[in-house]
Design goal:
It is a single chain. The chain has 838 residues and is of the alpha/beta class. The chain contains 29 helices and 33 strands. The chain has a 13-stranded mixed β-sheet, sandwiched between helices. The two termini are 57 Å apart.
Length: 838
């Protein structure tokens, strides 16, 4: 049994990292029982504020949790962060407090602080973590006239069915275990601060645990756990249910900031929150755990941006189920329209080289059967369906059947790695999974939710099962980026954007029903039916492009009498390296290809020229784009030759209906300039087109940053437009080197250095603004390049080079095997130059 020992409120000790002593104050309040108590409160004490952020900690933390938000407070906003009674530095009581009592205590405190009460009209945004979440929702119900917005971080606002609560909390809820872990020992307190990866600094861990140094000061920690109403008969269960159900009526903008590595609050808790709040957006920090405010200190800036957004609009268009689409987009044919047109065509639609073939008629029938089967099995319009199926006939059938059923495909290829793929799929809140046997085993291993459908026993239904109308405004897909420049991001497309993309690709490359293409590039492996083009899938794992050899490509071309080849740059290099293995039949099959398209990373002109010996009749094209918008530009080999040498890679002029501008870089490499199309200005490349993504999924802050210029998508690439309107790509914004002499973009320097014979990467070492340019060569030899080689590099680089390093290979992304990971390389170079191990 927990023993409560009364103690007065006090002030935190001086010297806690990040905590300004001027914020601390003691506030007397008559509590819910009519007894005067004293709260410790952190308060920036802004006079005549435009609004108040009411920040509530959970268990077993204290108001110190919100120090970052107090420091970053929005201009004119007051930030108030109290310690609950018995917690932090507030007064210790001789009895436990219930949920209902704590909600009323909180209301009385805000009255005493002048945040609420007679004559107060300023708006309030609640901010809460852990058990503070339900307390904040209880306060919101009682003060909805002042409620302007809601911010929740990792929390739960209702209890799931018995047995399904957070296992760590359920373990602490067992009386003897809970008393020992939460009160008699600091295990629960210290365990909470130990959840972060990487570990928090020791002084921060100690500060978070500082108020709880003795059993008597930890009594309320155990009391909070005991007050969690897992069972229906728990005294606090009625109050919890009322508050949780009432959330559905809190029609104010809400933001949920989430750490998905939390072992306490899981994906089902996040989904429960988003299902309850009428106007909610989510931002996930992929590497953050339970203490997301510690693991992702940038959360404070996100909260500030959220507060700023409250005055912009009541509801963000991307959050609505139906968004008004342009007239021409509504008139565009369905993605499966060409499949319907060829429903009686017995010619091949999809060919698995060395395996099976399905005709257009068969494909149409299988798609229709599966779509009706999925609808009959409970897949509803708007449901998200993860596809864990390799490129194949089954994948093609599944994609178009999901679309035809009005649901949304979720695709994260295994090239991300199993752990990252699992995280990506969980972040998408999938409702169903279609997979092979191995795919479904992987889904279980990485805890992907949803009902399971095996490709070996997919549901079918009679033609009487109705299929929904699919509109241009409905969501069509969540596609994940490669993760080459950070955690993979989910990109949401609506049907209108997919239709626009299909129409643009078909027109750009002059594709007709008479064309047949080899899909050796994963993103195009499923577009054949939408384009109305027969497709061959080569006998490789297309998520590993470098496994495509010349003979394998020739076999795929021969299987379908190919006229077009889509392949990744890494695949083309392997094709060139194995061209000598082609026999006469293989050479003949490749000799009739009219078009080669390669995307995903820049393709050197010398590679394209060399391919003429393998694909003698093929026009070589390299479209530029990204998961968020593909294609943006396109350039042929002839176009590359006409452009000549420049600072970066020439990717051609913007396509019809596509606009490209740049946001100029400042002296520190930040792209904050007004959008411009003036030739020669280096900046972040920005794109506007009908087929640009709808938004990033569950990444509200990322989407805000990428679309801060209305209607434009900031790509994260840097480059410039030339006098002829051609776009030159010079690297990524995160890879710009900010030297004392100005910014240096890496690609142009790398190209010049590569003329010496070795692949090169440029990174910056040192503080932003005073960085030094370091060149890393893919070359055997000592880590520090010999003096003669260093001078040769300096002679062609065109910028001041501080050092030249060598390593066996440059790290590249998994999906394309082409994009250099300059961030990882920069960390390595910094360590080497600081005297660390190579």
């Amino acid at each position: 049994m927990i023993r409560y020992t009364p103690a007065p409120a006090d002030l935190p000790p001086a010297g806690l990292p990040g905590l300004d002593p001027a914020w601390s104050r003691l506030v007397p309040v008559v509590d819910a029982d009519g007894v005067e108590r004293t709260f410790h409160v952190l308060d920036n004490q802004v006079e005549n504020p435009v609004g108040t952020l009411l920040c509530l900690h959970g268990n077993p933390t204290w108001s110190y949790l919100w120090r970052g938000l107090l420091a970053a407070a929005p201009a004119g906003w007051r930030v108030v962060a109290p310690d609950h009674l018995g917690m932090g530095h507030s007064e210790r009581l001789d009895v436990a407090r219930t949920l209902a009592q704590r909600v009323e205590d909180l209301g009385r405190l805000t009255d005493a602080l002048g945040v609420t009460g007679a004559g107060v009209t300023g708006p309030v945004v609640t901010v809460a973590h852990d058990w503070g979440g339900i307390l904040s929702m209880g306060w919101a119900h009682a003060h909805r006239e002042q409620l302007r917005g809601i911010v929740l971080t990792n929390t739960a606002v209702s209890q799931p069915p018995p047995g399904n609560g957070p296992w760590l909390i359920r373990a602490a809820h067992v009386p003897l275990v809970g008393e020992n872990a939460c009160v008699r020992t600091p295990a629960f307190v210290r365990g909470t601060t130990a959840l972060s990866r990487p570990r928090l600094d020791r002084d921060v861990r100690d500060a978070l645990a500082e108020p709880y140094g003795t059993p008597s000061r930890r009594a309320a920690v155990g009391g909070f756990v005991a007050d969690i109403p897992f069972a229906d008969g728990h005294p606090s269960r009625p109050a919890l249910d009322v508050i949780g159900d009432g959330m559905r009526t809190l029609d104010v903008p809400a933001l949920v900031i989430w750490g998905p590595r939390d072992p306490v609050f899981l994906e089902e808790h996040l989904r429960d929150i988003t299902d309850r709040l009428p106007d909610v957006r989510v931002h996930r920090y992929p590497h953050a755990s339970h203490l997301v405010t510690e693991d992702a200190p940038g959360y404070a800036d996100v909260v500030v941006d959220f507060v700023a957004s409250l005055g912009e609009r009541v509801r963000e268009p991307s959050l609505d189920a139906e968004v008004e689409a342009p007239e021409d987009a509504r008139e565009a044919p369905q993605v499966w329209a060409r499949l319907d047109e060829r429903m009686h065509d017995d010619t091949p639609a999809v060919v698995e080289v060395g395996g099976r073939t399905v005709s257009w008629a068969q494909l149409h029938g299988r798609v229709d059967d599966l779509a009706r089967g999925l609808a009959g099995a409970g897949v509803r319009p708007g449901d998200r369906v993860a596809l864990l199926v390799p490129p194949s006939i089954e994948l093609t059938v599944a994609v178009y059947a999901v679309w035809r059923a009005g649901a949304v495909i979720v695709v994260a290829d295994k090239g991300l790695g199993v752990r990252a793929m699992g995280g990506a799929l969980r972040s998408a809140s999938v409702d169903h999974v279609i997979g092979t046997r191995l795919g479904l085993l992987a889904a279980r291993a990485v805890r992907v939710p949803g009902t399971r459908f095996s490709t070996a026993a997919l549901p079918v239904a009679s033609s009487a099962t109705a299929l929904p109308e699919v509109t241009a405004a409905m969501e069509a897909a969540v596609l994940f980026t490669s993760g080459a420049t950070g955690p993979a991001k989910g990109v949401v497309y609506r049907h209108r954007q997919v239709r626009a993309q299909v129409a643009l690709v078909r027109e750009l490359y002059g594709l007709t029903d008479a064309d047949r293409f080899v899909a050796a590039f994963a993103p195009f492996a499923i577009l054949g039916p939408a384009l109305g083009v027969s497709t061959a899938v080569p006998a490789i794992d297309v998520t590993k492009p470098a496994t495509l050899t010349a003979p394998i490509l020739a076999d795929a071309a021969a299987a379908i009498d190919a006229t077009v080849v889509f392949a990744a740059p890494a695949a083309l290099r392997t094709v060139l390296a194995t061209a000598g293995e082609l026999d006469a039949a293989g050479a003949g099959a490749l000799g009739t290809v009219r078009l080669l398209v390669s995307a995903g990373a820049p393709v050197p002109a010398d590679v394209l020229r060399a391919l003429a010996a393998v694909l003698p009749l093929a026009q070589c094209h390299t479209p530029y784009g990204m998961t968020e918008c593909l294609p943006v530009t396109d350039v042929s080999l002839a176009g590359i030759d006409a452009a000549g040498a420049g600072d970066g890679v020439c990717v051609g002029a913007p396509l019809a209906g596509v606009e490209v501008t740049v946001s100029p870089l400042d002296a520190l490499g930040v792209a904050d300039g007004a959008l411009t199309s003036e030739p020669g200005v280096v900046g972040e490349i920005c794109v506007r087109a009908e087929h640009v993504k709808d938004r990033y999924d569950a990444l509200w802050a990322t989407e805000r940053a990428a679309s801060r210029d209305a209607g434009w998508h900031r790509t994260g690439d840097v480059g410039h437009l030339d006098a002829d309107g051609r776009l030159w790509v010079a690297g990524r914004t995160g890879h710009v080197v900010s030297t004392p002499d100005g910014v240096v973009t890496p690609v142009g320097v790398e190209q010049r250095v590569a003329t010496l014979g070795d692949a090169a990467a440029v990174v910056g070492v040192g503080p932003v603004g005073t960085q030094q340019v370091v060149v890393v060569l893919a070359r055997e030899g000592p880590v520090l390049a010999p003096a003669a080689l260093t001078e040769r590099v300096r002679g062609v680089a065109g910028v001041a080079v501080a050092a030249v390093l060598q390593r066996t290979a440059l790290p590249v992304d998994i999906r394309h095997s082409s994009k250099v990971d300059r961030a990882a390389l920069g960390d390595w170079a910094s360590g080497v130059l600081a005297g660390g191990r190579a």
